[in-house]
Write a structure and sequence with these properties.
The chain is an alpha+beta fold and about 180 residues long. It is built from five helices and four strands. Helix 3 runs antiparallel to helix 4. The termini are close together.
Length: about 180
């Protein structure tokens, strides 16, 4: 990753550790309002408002919809083709295109494709599997899985300035502000 010209190449960003989730959400909202765009929150459980405060938007719902539509159209088309073109059977004079009978398999292929595309899309968008992240270099980050809340502002952010960003984070009275190194 390239580093901004005003920072040393070993800095990933600055991390503030908070004792409670409300302070984390308030700090994240204020950081977004101040113009920071490359930041992330780390919490021991999902915190209401943190995702919205960061301002992230995820395309997973659109990927899931696209997968579901592909499954629906593909499933119905495949069944229609097999019953009317590839293997048309005249059973007791019934029509080969009996669409009500096609609904259950079409529903199942819709759910299958939507679920698979949601899972695969989420894995790819999240960059998984990710065995290492620079935040693991901060000793206090081990508390992110138990009882502390972290806000990281990345050095690649256009607004990031080491001293100004640290002073900004200190304004929320965190337990500590740490430098995250690569």
């Amino acid at each position: 990753m390239a580093s901004p010209s005003n920072e040393s190449p070993g800095i990933y960003g600055l991390m503030a550790m908070f004792e409670d989730p409300t302070t984390l959400v308030a700090a994240t909202e204020k950081a977004r309002d101040e113009g920071y765009s490359k930041m992330n929150c780390y919490t021991p459980y999902p915190v209401a408002g943190a995702w919205e405060a960061i301002g992230h938007e995820t395309p997973v719902s659109k990927i899931t919809l696209a997968g579901g539509l592909v499954g629906c159209i593909g499933g119905f088309s495949f069944i229609t083709w097999t019953q009317t073109v590839a293997y048309p059977w005249n059973i007791a004079g019934r029509p080969t295109f009996s669409w009500p009978a096609f609904i259950p398999p079409t529903f199942e292929t819709t759910i299958l494709f939507a679920g698979l595309s949601a899972a695969i899309g989420m894995i790819l968008i999240n960059g998984l599997p990710q065995h290492y992240h620079p935040v693991f270099n901060v000793p206090s980050f081990k508390r992110a899985s138990s009882d502390r809340y972290f806000l990281v502002i990345e050095s690649e952010d256009e607004k990031f300035d080491r001293e100004a960003t640290e002073a900004f984070l200190q304004g929320f009275n965190p337990e500590e502000v740490s430098e995250v190194e690569y």
